[in-house]
């Protein structure tokens, strides 16, 4: 099997996501190619990968279609790994392979960045876009075709940002106008949206798992069954993910899917975190087992968030999958961890649903406003991890000033004062459980 894909990123996520998908294509005779992994940092993971000849096991476990799933897959799609810090010439040699056609990357949110200190003579350039520019220039010099590049980093416009920085390096390093034109003409930098919780190496469980496998596996990976990959473009004829039954969507624009994910998945988290913490519930799974909190979450989704998105079938289906994912017994998501930086999260994930609901209905979505009241109450009385200036302001000021502070919320929320004030009074008079019960009426 020839190497056809270069992957920048040795971590758990891509091995529990894209590498599984390529493995599925190969095993269903829909593709015939392997992945060579390139380490974007000087990582020892390349040694682990090569020691196992790229082979590893992925355990998918969670809730799917209302049923508990526990499935072990042997992943054979990875051929080897290259560390450009130890073998820069070997890294550049990959560019000379005409069979290579695709590049997949996940170098973390900070990976797609422009580092002005990078030089073309570095072996390699420290930044990922710098390394990619060096690699593409080697490809260009050998008069070979470009690549389909699928950036999976969790930033907006990930593919286009990567293209922008590659072109900046080409200009900074004076690699020539012809090279820049080749980048634009011969390569497709695709924005993508990824969604899967990959929980990685299951520390504390390996003894029993290795016994079941009949071998040890230093690359063992775990993930939830759910997956979504939205890719701007349409290369289904080359990478037939849909034909393989995978939840991969080729689209002209990932933005609507990003909006759905942020408002439904992330918005549900942010709406439920402080009602749960005020109730003394510590994990997402425990909240889903708590009838009252589950009803509150359903109310947030069904009556507030989904209507603000038009109640499309796609969004309704996605919301159903979110409830299953939250209830996953194999993932212990702590609300305290989810509560980090909740002011900016509320601003990005929940506030747009409130304002859209208000435009559509002429009234406020009470459950979402109640979640804001819970946030403010929690910030006033408990230790939280957020911008110290935000925390200090909320603790020292009265409700009207808090809501009208544009630095906190990005706009004046004075129009929410009466409803937030009512919710806070209900919590103080009735207790958190009694106040939630009133919202649910």
From TrEMBL:
A GO MF label: tagaturonate reductase activity
UniProt keyword list: NAD, Oxidoreductase
Pfam family, one: Mannitol_dh
The enzyme's E.C. designation: 1.1.1.58
InterPro entries: 6-PGluconate_DH-like_C_sf, 6PGD_dom2, Mannitol_DH, Mannitol_DH_C, Mannitol_DH_N, NAD(P)-bd_dom_sf
Any Gene Ontology CC annotation: cytosol
Domain of life: Bacteria
Ranges where the Mannitol dehydrogenase C-terminal domain occurs: 253-384
Domain Mannitol dehydrogenase N-terminal positions: 3-238
Reaction equations catalysed: D-mannitol 1-phosphate + NAD(+) = beta-D-fructose 6-phosphate + NADH + H(+)
GO biological process, one term: mannitol catabolic process
UniProt-recorded name of the protein: Tagaturonate reductase
Organism: Candidatus Eubacterium faecale
